From TrEMBL:
Region described as Disordered: spans on this chain: 1-24, 39-98
Biased composition range(s): Basic and acidic residues: 1-15, 39-70
Name by which UniProt lists this protein: Uncharacterized protein
Organism: Acropora cervicornis (Staghorn coral)
Amino acid sequence: MKDFLKKESEEKKQSGVDVEYGELDQTLQDIKERMAEFEELRKGEEQKQKKEKAAAEEMRRQATEKLSETKKRKASLEDNDEDDNISPRKTKKSTSMVDVVQQTIQLKKWQQEHDDEIKKRELDLRAAEMQQQQIFQQTLLQQQQQFQQQQQALNMSMISGISELLKVIKK
């Protein structure tokens, strides 16, 4: 690829020369163009991701700031707007008490729903764990019963073997 790029550069420097490309040269030219397109797309994606990341960080910062900080920020934005656009007096925008109460109610409702969902998931998980534990205990109990039965069968066979041996010895 380096040789091709060097050759192409030399051909461009020679003015008035009509160069015919072979199949290999044409393929290398296509690859070069695709690499350039890919690089442009990659840079565009990087810029887009940087913008999205910056916007997300700003949204997080704004979401976590205190109400007083929000008011200060909005006031400074309004001051900047007033400096840029000298216009008649602007009325200050303020949220009414009703809006604040509604937002608080909505937030509490959302929080309650979220808490309920978490509790439901925890209960489902506990129920599944209890069921699994119950199955395990049943399996363990069955194994113990089988072991006891095997022990009893072994004891019975040993007793019958001993009694047979005693009969043989007594004769």
